[in-house]
Request: fold
Amino acid sequence: MLADIGYVTVIAAFAVAVYAVAVSIYGNWKNDWRWVESARNASIAILGLVVLACVLLVTALLQGDFSIDYVWRVSSREMPTYLKVTALWGGQAGSLLFWNMILAVFTATAMAHKWHNEHERYLLPHALAVATVTQVFFLGLTAFVENPFTQLAFTPADGNGLNPLLRHPGMIIHPPMLYLGFTGLTIPYAFAMAALITGKLDEGWIRITRRWTLAGWLFLSLGLILGGRWAYDVLGWGGYWDWDPVENASLMPWLAGTAFLHSVMIQEKRNMFKMWNMFLIILTYCLMIYGTFIVRSGVISSVHSFAQSAVGPLFFGFISLMFVFSAYWLIRRRDELASENRLDSLLSREAAFLFNNFVILAILGATFWGTNLPIVSELVTGEKITVGSPFYEQVNGPLFAVLLLLMGVAPLTMWYRTSTQRLGIMMRWPALAALVFVAILFFLGIGTWGSLLGLWIVTFAAIITLLEFWRGTAARMRSKNEPVWVAYANLLARNRRRYGGYWIHVGVIVMAFGIIGTEFFQQEIQINLNRGESVELGDYRMTFNGVRQYAGPDDLIITEASADLYHNERYVRTLYPRTEFYTRSGQPMSIPAARSTIGEDFYVLLILWEQTSSASAVFRIYLNPLINWVWAGGFIFVLGTMIAAWPDPVDNTVAAASVRRRRPSLAAGD
Amino acid sequence: MEIHGEEKGRFLFNLSANLRAILRESPRHFLKLLILPLALLWVSGQAHAQQPVGAVTDNEVNEVARDIYCPVCENVPLDVCPTQACADWRTIIRQQLAEGQTKEEIIDYFAVRYGEQIRSAPPRYGIFWFFWLIPVLGVGLAAIFFGRYVWQLQKRPSTSKPPGVTAVAKEDYLAQVEKELGKK
Reply:
């Protein structure tokens, strides 16, 4: 019964989405606002229906209704309640439904917003049509291909239980963050297409969607960071990023979005690169769909194979359709999108943004190439190959270094042009200070040439970025006669976008220190220890106490080792690395134990143990320098994005005023 | 020892080919076939799998195993792969290291038997070279187009005169910051 209602709800949502697309197009064509408003109301109805479908599926999960195939696949009676709820996105069909819900939230909210604003009213109907086309596709998948309410011929007594890899808190939050990011980026795309279709190509669409873009980008960033944390805590290889195709699938739209967020500033400030910005937002959207396609089709073999299914060709068709549709409008409007202004100097803020875009797109291109290389190789040579981290480290490593260097220099440049002399003076001392820091490391015998170059770049960028904060604060202290913290707080509050952006840079820099630390200075050892024996690594000594085995919740058998950790011969704590074995799925998981400090992680994995006597065990130990800087940097990054995206009432007034000012010229120009 | 390793390798190759055939036919059946017995083996007698052969340490085995990807699992290097098949492959690495083979020779041994996909990155011979060259050429070509585009942008006559552009260029940066902040 519940399954039947659920399925009818999904079908109804699909039908309403088709209706919304049809009437929004018809309403635009006939210029009849009643139809367009009906389409907007339909988007709210879709939200209601999809929320209802999700509630029904969660109810089935909580009740343990194993007559529903999805419930049987991803849950079991013994699972704790919170996991039964999060099992909504623990498998293909449920996560697609959940995806639909988030997309519906974004679409309904964005479309309900400022409907009566005269300027935005032109774009909204078309944006609504584009956004609901995306909804039709995803709801169609849920309704006809991946129906989460499919019933089994009989009712099993118990279910399979959630994939053990997905029972970690990081994995519970990580998928919703990615979905929020992906679907959030649909909104700026929809408005960009609306601008292309209507020919209203000023920065109106950018202004409307700036916060949507930032929010989507923020969630995508959070998804990436949490995914990394999950890998570090659960996958048990001592790392957090492995250039897996599914990781790349979320990184690529993030990169395109990053390029867009930078280049869009040139359009706002100098009315340049309209075509380029359109291209970037279309690229972001297509990569978002492509990323979903990679994850869900299993087209490229990957550790994330749990999401495999037969949806590949449909995704491929949809990406092609949207790409052709976008390219058609982009080409049709190419003359109107041409840059009106010239680039005054290569040493200018706009040129810096251009270089930044070039490098980001180079990284994106190389990542796209690497991700698809297994398929290309199979097609061209007949041989499937693996494209693992060595490929990306060699190709993308230098590009990331250039990007960081640009990130350091760019804030020093000014719009229109900056004099070489001025730039030299500004860069001189930070460059020298970074050099002194690196020279000290060199004479202490720390690091290779590659790591020292990386550290120089990051230190240089760090000094410049921090000096930017100081200059701004000092300028306020002088001009407004404010004490330092008041000046700083006001600086941030009144220039959220600029200084929020710099905080994002600080986050990236802190993360870069962490990445260099783990990439270049990681130490690793695997050793067999008898009870009472010790192993030394860095300043640490670990003594093995023994192994015990016990039954965990559900079908879990836990084997846990105990080892005392000493730092410089002082007892620190006892570590309990463990192996979890899920008997039903036969899946082993190695859960590390770690001692975390700001300087490093002592990270231990239990690999093997003597079964009968528990007298010996094999451990794999990693010393990960600066690993916690990656997480700290991620936190700062998110904070910076929130500062930049925080709604600012002053902004709206200014924006409204600028719209009023601009309107006559718009009419003339367009 | 060598013959033993060869035989074992051939056996595992046949096993992996069979498993892959089953995987194509029925993935879920394959999982049951693969995981359950492996899991039983894994739980019951794993400490035997990595007993040292000669003086080869686990660290030396890992140093090679990290650059060999499991042929049957997905995107997992041998040094972290938890399956019994990978434990056996690590034993082969250990034996070959004990016989004095180099890392490259061992990787080649696996590549010949299980295909180029066991390498952690595309190999550097024949057509595979292009796979490395294409991103480099791509970035190079893009840089040329980008350079041309920027050059054209610089040549273009400006339609709107920037407000006080000459003044800005001559101004002290700090004064510029102060000016911007003063507006707020």
About this structure: Chain A has a mean pLDDT of 88. Chain A touches chain B through 85 residues (CB under 8 Å). Chain A is about 65% helix and 10% strand. Residues 53 and 270 of chain A are 47 Å apart (CA to CA).
